Request: fold
Amino acid sequence: MRPFIRRPRLRRGGFSIAEAVIAAIVFVIAMTGVLATIGNIKKPSARTDRSLTAAYVGQEVLEAMRTNVDAGTWDDPSSPLSLGVHNGSKPVDGVTYTYSYTVAQDPVSKARQVTVTVNWPDNL
Reply:
Protein backbone atom coordinates (compact mmCIF):
# COMPACT_ATOMS: atom_id res chain seq x y z
CA MET A 1 0.00 0.00 0.00
CA ARG A 2 1.15 3.43 -0.79
CA PRO A 3 1.65 5.90 2.01
CA PHE A 4 -0.93 8.70 2.15
CA ILE A 5 0.69 11.97 1.16
CA ARG A 6 -1.26 15.03 1.76
CA ARG A 7 -1.00 17.53 -0.98
CA PRO A 8 -1.47 21.19 -0.21
CA ARG A 9 -4.70 22.52 -1.59
CA LEU A 10 -4.45 24.98 -4.35
CA ARG A 11 -5.78 28.27 -3.18
CA ARG A 12 -9.04 29.24 -4.71
CA GLY A 13 -9.93 32.83 -5.59
CA GLY A 14 -11.23 35.19 -2.91
CA PHE A 15 -10.11 36.76 0.33
CA SER A 16 -9.54 35.36 3.73
CA ILE A 17 -11.48 36.82 6.64
CA ALA A 18 -8.39 38.64 7.91
CA GLU A 19 -7.84 40.26 4.53
CA ALA A 20 -11.47 41.33 4.34
CA VAL A 21 -11.34 42.88 7.84
CA ILE A 22 -8.16 44.80 7.03
CA ALA A 23 -9.64 46.02 3.74
CA ALA A 24 -12.80 47.18 5.56
CA ILE A 25 -10.75 49.09 8.14
CA VAL A 26 -8.70 50.81 5.42
CA PHE A 27 -11.93 51.69 3.57
CA VAL A 28 -13.54 53.19 6.70
CA ILE A 29 -10.44 55.28 7.43
CA ALA A 30 -10.35 56.57 3.85
CA MET A 31 -14.07 57.40 3.84
CA THR A 32 -13.75 59.25 7.16
CA GLY A 33 -11.14 61.50 5.58
CA VAL A 34 -13.25 62.09 2.48
CA LEU A 35 -16.40 62.91 4.48
CA ALA A 36 -14.48 65.25 6.80
CA THR A 37 -13.14 67.10 3.77
CA ILE A 38 -16.62 67.43 2.26
CA GLY A 39 -17.92 68.76 5.58
CA ASN A 40 -15.20 71.41 5.70
CA ILE A 41 -15.90 72.47 2.13
CA LYS A 42 -19.61 72.86 2.80
CA LYS A 43 -19.20 75.33 5.69
CA PRO A 44 -17.45 78.07 3.70
CA SER A 45 -19.97 77.54 0.92
CA ALA A 46 -22.87 78.37 3.26
CA ARG A 47 -21.01 81.46 4.43
CA THR A 48 -20.44 82.49 0.82
CA ASP A 49 -24.16 82.07 0.10
CA ARG A 50 -25.05 84.28 3.09
CA SER A 51 -22.50 86.85 2.01
CA LEU A 52 -23.91 86.96 -1.52
CA THR A 53 -27.46 87.28 -0.19
CA ALA A 54 -26.31 90.14 2.07
CA ALA A 55 -24.90 91.90 -0.98
CA TYR A 56 -28.28 91.56 -2.72
CA VAL A 57 -30.05 92.94 0.37
CA GLY A 58 -27.70 95.93 0.35
CA GLN A 59 -28.36 96.45 -3.35
CA GLU A 60 -32.13 96.38 -2.72
CA VAL A 61 -31.75 99.03 0.00
CA LEU A 62 -29.83 101.28 -2.39
CA GLU A 63 -32.34 100.71 -5.20
CA ALA A 64 -35.21 101.60 -2.87
CA MET A 65 -33.43 104.85 -2.00
CA ARG A 66 -32.88 105.67 -5.68
CA THR A 67 -36.60 105.39 -6.35
CA ASN A 68 -37.24 107.92 -3.55
CA VAL A 69 -35.01 110.67 -4.93
CA ASP A 70 -37.28 113.68 -5.01
CA ALA A 71 -36.38 117.33 -4.54
CA GLY A 72 -39.50 117.84 -2.45
CA THR A 73 -38.59 115.15 0.11
CA TRP A 74 -34.79 115.52 0.00
CA ASP A 75 -34.59 117.20 3.41
CA ASP A 76 -37.68 115.58 4.97
CA PRO A 77 -36.57 113.83 8.22
CA SER A 78 -38.77 110.80 7.41
CA SER A 79 -37.17 110.36 3.98
CA PRO A 80 -34.81 107.41 3.53
CA LEU A 81 -32.33 109.91 2.09
CA SER A 82 -32.33 112.20 5.14
CA LEU A 83 -28.96 112.73 6.78
CA GLY A 84 -28.05 110.32 9.57
CA VAL A 85 -28.18 106.62 10.37
CA HIS A 86 -31.08 104.44 9.25
CA ASN A 87 -31.72 100.82 10.34
CA GLY A 88 -33.90 98.02 9.06
CA SER A 89 -34.16 94.29 8.52
CA LYS A 90 -35.21 91.94 5.76
CA PRO A 91 -36.02 88.21 6.05
CA VAL A 92 -34.69 86.06 3.22
CA ASP A 93 -35.16 82.26 3.17
CA GLY A 94 -35.82 82.13 6.91
CA VAL A 95 -32.76 84.24 7.78
CA THR A 96 -33.18 87.82 8.98
CA TYR A 97 -30.59 90.19 7.56
CA THR A 98 -30.22 93.46 9.43
CA TYR A 99 -28.96 96.51 7.63
CA SER A 100 -27.79 99.93 8.59
CA TYR A 101 -27.00 102.77 6.27
CA THR A 102 -25.56 106.18 6.87
CA VAL A 103 -26.34 109.19 4.72
CA ALA A 104 -23.70 111.94 4.88
CA GLN A 105 -23.43 115.16 2.91
CA ASP A 106 -20.31 116.70 1.44
CA PRO A 107 -20.14 120.29 2.72
CA VAL A 108 -18.79 121.70 -0.54
CA SER A 109 -20.64 119.85 -3.29
CA LYS A 110 -23.74 119.04 -1.19
CA ALA A 111 -23.60 115.55 -2.69
CA ARG A 112 -24.87 112.78 -0.41
CA GLN A 113 -22.85 109.67 0.29
CA VAL A 114 -24.55 106.47 1.42
CA THR A 115 -22.72 103.67 3.24
CA VAL A 116 -24.64 100.39 3.71
CA THR A 117 -23.73 97.59 6.14
CA VAL A 118 -25.63 94.27 6.15
CA ASN A 119 -25.33 91.62 8.91
CA TRP A 120 -26.78 88.17 9.49
CA PRO A 121 -26.67 85.71 12.41
CA ASP A 122 -23.32 83.94 12.78
CA ASN A 123 -24.78 80.63 13.94
CA LEU A 124 -25.76 79.53 10.43
Remarks:
- The helical segments are 17-67.
- The chain has a mean pLDDT of 83.
- The two ends are 84 Å apart (CA to CA).
